[in-house]
């Protein structure tokens, strides 16, 4: 998935190739809905994306979880809060993910559970675009804590209460015996992911 490419996949592949001279690697960055199809059709040895996965042709391995946060412009009145409840966002302009995305569905469920209907005039198919709108002062986005990190001080992050986490992991084509090279790359990905998540602003596991 896009937000895991530069932060985890590229460093992992760089280390892998330094240990496996002469091999070729193809890195394809796709939205989650395409990633599942490509892995299930055995076009790739492994994928790296959000969980859960419901495709019958894929087996998964969770490698970490990160908290879900409210992303706000630094000058927003709520940006200095230590935490926020979904019901406190009633009446706020929420920049939402399109409903065909996993994050969009999960955020919609959070608002439904809180009995709040988000006021929204902007939808985007990628979470980073939602955060870009926030940086421009257009509203509030709800994402996992990895995404806003790329925008630095142009946005602020406030954890949700009660705490909500998103899971991420490795995706493998079901019924395919992994090569030793694929297993080695997966091991390096786990290590790089652990290091990356440890550096996030909010606690993850």
Low-pLDDT sequence parts: none
Mean pLDDT: 90
Q: Can you tell me the CATH class of the largest domain?
A: Alpha Beta
Oligomer: single chain
In total, how many beta strands?
Answer: 7
Name the CATH superfamily classification of the largest domain.
Periplasmic binding protein-like II
Task: Please tell me the CATH architecture of the largest domain by its name.
Answer: 3-Layer(aba) Sandwich
Largest sheet: 7 strands, mixed
Return the domain count: 2
Q: Please indicate the percent range of residues in DSSP E strands (runs of 2 or more).
A: 15-25%
Which secondary-structure class do the elements indicate?
alpha/beta
Distance between the termini: 19 Å
Characterization of this structure:
The protein has 205 residues and is of the alpha/beta class. It has five helices and seven strands, in the order ααβββαβαβββα. The protein has helices at residues 2-19, 32-40, 102-114, 127-135, 180-198; strands at residues 47-51, 58-72, 94-97, 123-124, 140-144, 156-159, 165-173. It has two domains: 2-64 and 166-198, D-Maltodextrin-Binding Protein, domain 2 (3-Layer(aba) Sandwich); 66-165, D-Maltodextrin-Binding Protein, domain 2 (3-Layer(aba) Sandwich). The model has no long low-confidence stretch (mean pLDDT 90). Strands 1, 2, 3, 4, 5, 6 and 7 form a seven-stranded mixed β-sheet that branches. 33% of the residues lie in helices and 21% in strands. The two termini are 19 Å apart. Helix 1 packs across helix 5 (180-198).
């Amino acid at each position: 998935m896009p937000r895991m490419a530069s932060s985890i996949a590229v460093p992992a592949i760089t280390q892998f190739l330094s240990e496996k001279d002469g091999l070729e690697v193809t890195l394809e960055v796709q939205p989650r809905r395409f990633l599942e199809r490509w892995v299930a059709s055995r076009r790739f040895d492994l994928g790296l994306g959000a969980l859960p996965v419901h495709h019958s042709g894929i087996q998964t391995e969770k490698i970490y979880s990160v908290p879900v946060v409210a992303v706000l412009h630094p000058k927003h009145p709520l940006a200095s809060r230590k935490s926020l409840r979904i019901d406190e966002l009633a009446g706020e302009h929420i920049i939402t993910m399109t409903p065909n995305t996993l994050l969009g569905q999960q955020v919609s469920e959070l608002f439904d559970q809180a009995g709040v209907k988000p006021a929204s005039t902007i939808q985007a198919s990628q979470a980073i675009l939602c955060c870009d709108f926030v940086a421009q002062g257009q509203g509030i986005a709800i994402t996992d804590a990895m995404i806003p990190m790329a925008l630095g001080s142009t946005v602020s992050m406030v954890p949700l209460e009660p705490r909500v986490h998103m899971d991420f992991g490795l995706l493998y084509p079901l019924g395919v015996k992994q090569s030793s090279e694929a297993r080695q790359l997966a091991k390096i990905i786990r290590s790089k992911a652990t290091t990356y998540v440890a550096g996030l602003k909010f606690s993850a596991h």
